[in-house]
Model the fold of this input.
Amino acid sequence: MSVTGRTTLCVLLGYPVTHSASPRMQNAAFRSLGLDWVYVPWGVRPDALARAVEALKAIENFGGGNVTIPHKEAALGVLNALSPEAAAIGAVNTIVPRGGTLVGHNTDGTGFLSAVREEAGEEPRGRRVGLVGTGGGARAVAYALGQAETAELGIFSRNQDRAESLRRHMVELFPNLEVLALGLQDISADRLRRLDILINATPVGMQAADPPLFDYKALSDHTLVVDLIYRPSETPLLRLARARGCRTLNGAGMLLHQGAQALELWTGRKAPVSIMRQALAEELEGA
Done:
């Protein structure tokens, strides 16, 4: 990779960012497309997010950015404008410069749906889904499930107020969707048997010492268990779900598809998904 005075810069805003596989994936895509672009991780503490975004506004060769934990919701208040999807979701994962302004988009939800449909062969329409978490990623997934005409969505959270707030928001957007706001203590064997799909949208499982969200041995073998974490590739939740006979899916497919859609917003070019998939696999395998 050669960086010149004409190179266009893309960044990842998050904290921490050392675990991210996006740089290798996006830089492989830029090379494949013959673009003089570079994608770099930019570790930004929460109290510095506004200053970091303000700096991006002054960079003439800024091509676009991604936003990850813990900034997806906070980014709403520091950008010039929002796409309809980002405004409805209440979170941003992609920044696109347009005419001197920075516009927040969200490709997480559509990236999630693409992964579930293509990687797991599952169609969420009419399904009963449990979603653990209420952060920016969870909000995007909930919105996507509403668009996909999921029949029932149970939102499980340690913070009952946030779960109820997200429940009300989803009901306003999708009046025909049955939405429940529940606590982690409500994830019982009986409730798990009702679910077709269970999704972990929290960071729990990224660290080996993380305590379990619930009793994973209570999972039912007909459930598709999805963990949005992609590193490690198999979290304790996915490992025990697989042992229970469940189908499992980690977050690598969602990362791939949301990243491909972000690249298309930045460049106006068709994303080389197969190249990005290979680069992502090599990064996650440690090649």
The two ends are 17 Å apart (CA to CA). The mean pLDDT is 96. The chain has two domains: 8-106+253-285, 109-250. The longest strand covers residues 8-14.
